[in-house]
Amino acid sequence: MGYLDENAREIIRPIKRMVEDEFLSRPGVIGVDIGEKVTGGRPTGRAAIVVYVCAKGPLHPQQIPAEVGGVPTDVVAESIVLHRARVTRTAEPVAAERHPVLRGGLSIGPARSFRVVPPEVPVAGEYVIAGTLGAFVVTRDDARKVLGLTTFHVGCVDDSWSVGDEFVHPSRVDGGVPGADQVAVLDRAALAGSVCAAGLRMGARPIRAEVLDVGAITGSAEAVVGSTVRKRGRTTGLTHGVITSADATLRLDFGDGLGVRTLRDQIRVYSSERFGDHGDSGAVLVDADNRVVGLYVAGTGPTGYANPVGPVLRQLDVELLTPGVPESRRPEPAA
User: Fold this and answer.
1) Class of CATH domain 6-78
2) 79-322: what CATH class?
3) pTM of the model
4) pLDDT tens, 75-126?
């Protein structure tokens, strides 16, 4: 997908918003975005409403009109999956990094296991979850609690979550042990609009306001189409990509009693390498100045999707912890 200037996006955006829910209700459609129309594998230079389908077939060109309001459409086959890792509780743990001082970019997961049945998994059983601790934030109230930032589907997993759920580093997938490796408890979460996020109240383990392999977090910023970003995830480590859109609307299947949810205004990243994989959900996207622009949630191969950081911070009622943001009160150890 080519880059479009903001003027072209501003013209198309209201038309895309007008039709996206109707398009998403059609069989096989999993996303609606803004990008450059590609014909026969070659970019045309024309701005388009891009429609993502799970498998491009002969019916899709017929079910999506060739243009809407004078704007062409482009049907693109795309696979978009949530990138937490889920394995059976009895599986052999993966050898993982263990860090006495916590930073962003590390493995984390719930201490509890989850009963999951087909078709969500091949075999019914008890499963454990792994994701990424993205960065640290501070609550905006007087308590100034320090929270670890991750995604809703890592922090809450299903519809039986509750405040106080225990989290371990490394995750149980990676050999973490409930109790002995506890580092946080669930404090708050949001799954609405453009946000799929959770905040974990950190315990007594020392922390640093930085991301492993990236450095100190300097603040937050809006995603800029065409700019380069990095993320440090539990599974793929440090990867690089380019923001190709901040207008993606996605239908994602959260399963586990939560069902299909729509996330709007998501950041799309394209990379020449594998940008993310299962276990990377919760990683933060940072720009060249180490400002957080997004929270990684899903993708496939070279393509990744992330929440814009502004709505995440607002819905969780927090601000990013940086070396320049004081904590007025160090959190009590998580019970």
Assistant:
1) alpha beta
2) mainly beta
3) 0.93
4) 999 889 999 999 988 888 877 789 999 999 999 999 999 988 888 888 899 9
